[in-house]
Every structure is written in C-alpha cells, then in structure tokens.
Specification:
Length: about 200
C-alpha cells in the first residue's frame, strides 16, 4: 500500500454534500483527496472520476484546457447519480509540476502544442503514475467502477494497477475557442476519445 487514509469531513458543494477523505503518500507525504457522494459500498459498480490536479483550470478558470470544466461536470454527474467518488490526484500538469507547466504554456504561446512543449522541457507527453489511485479505491472499499474519462491509457493503467473497470463513461465538457488545438492534440497524439459514446469493457 503506497498511502494511508488520514482524515475526513463533510464538504458542502453546489451539487450537494460530499464526504471529503484525505490520503497521504507514505514515501513522499504528498496528499490526495477523494470526494464521495452517497453509499459507495456493495457490489454494484461505482461511478468514478480520477481527476488530475490542474490549478490553472480547476481554481483559476483557465480556458487553455478542459480540466476545470471536467471537474465540475464530474461532480455534477456523480451527485445526479446519487452515488460515486472523485479522486483528486495531486500530479499537477500531467506530473511535471506547476512551474514547468507555466514553462510549457510559454512554449505553447510560441507555437508548440502541449505534447511538443513537454518534450522540449525534457518530459514525456504524460508523466503521471496512477498506481496510488488503485490503493485509494481499495482503501475506500471500491471494487468495480464505471470510469468517467476520455483517456483509454488511464483505463489501461488503472486496470493494470488492479482496479476493475467495467465501463468507460465519456466526460465531454469545456470546448471553447481557446482550447481547440489543445483538444485536437489530446485526440491525435494522446489517444483521447472526444466523443460521447460509452465503452463497455467487460460483459
């Protein structure tokens, strides 16, 4: 187990009251969150979102990405279902960190796309590791999920980490004139599926 469950409290939101659970990585002491709505115990698949931290999109309302829009859409969808969990995964900028993310933005201002900017800074297109998310689900007692994501690679990584994902559920939100190239790059170079069709993974 890569992390431990350390604290919890009620978090009232626009969509209703969530249970906020805090986790701490044992090796690094980095913290992560889970937001839980309703009763997520039992054998029925749980609607879930693994949302990677994006300060610029989630808190500063950036239009360069779709992250903040996806965060709001995921919480709304989970609340509508009356049962679900969102993991807030603290790996900013696909895990290159906030300052390198700003450097990547500067390169994008000069013409690079999001993947090219990461490569110019010496990073891969996506530096994230989702292994600890599997541990978060296990500590929450979640066995099977319907995953809100457009990213098949995230599905593959979570399955390899031991999470049973029965269906991928699209989460399309936040398309605007400022992020057209960003979204096209995610689709063409990173394999994101930017359509609304759900994909059943197991029968």
């Amino acid at each position: 187990m890569l992390l431990k469950r350390v604290a919890e409290a009620t978090l009232p939101t626009y969509w209703g009251d969530f249970l906020m659970v805090g986790f701490k990585e044992i090796a690094t002491e980095q913290d992560h969150l889970a937001l839980i709505y309703g009763n997520i115990t039992g054998s029925t698949p749980v609607l879930a979102r693994v949302h990677s931290e994006c300060l610029t999109g989630d808190a500063l309302f950036s239009l360069r990405c779709d992250c903040g829009f996806q965060l709001k859409a995921a919480l709304a969808r989970i609340a509508k279902e009356k049962r679900g969990v969102l993991l807030y995964h603290r790996q900013e900028g696909r895990n290159i960190g906030l300052l390198n993310k700003i450097r990547a933005y500067a390169l994008q201002d000069k013409g690079a796309d999001t993947v090219e900017a990461n490569h110019q800074l010496g990073f891969s297109a996506d530096e994230r590791n989702f292994t600890l998310c599997a541990d978060m689900f296990k500590l929450l007692g979640v066995d099977v999920i319907h995953l809100l994501t457009n990213n098949p690679k995230k599905v593959d990584m979570l399955i390899k980490s031991g999470i049973n994902i029965s269906k991928r559920v699209p989460i399309i939100a936040g398309h605007n004139p400022k992020n057209v190239r960003y979204l096209k790059t995610k689709a063409s170079k990173m394999g994101h599926l930017l359509n609304r069709s759900s994909k059943k993974l197991i029968s």
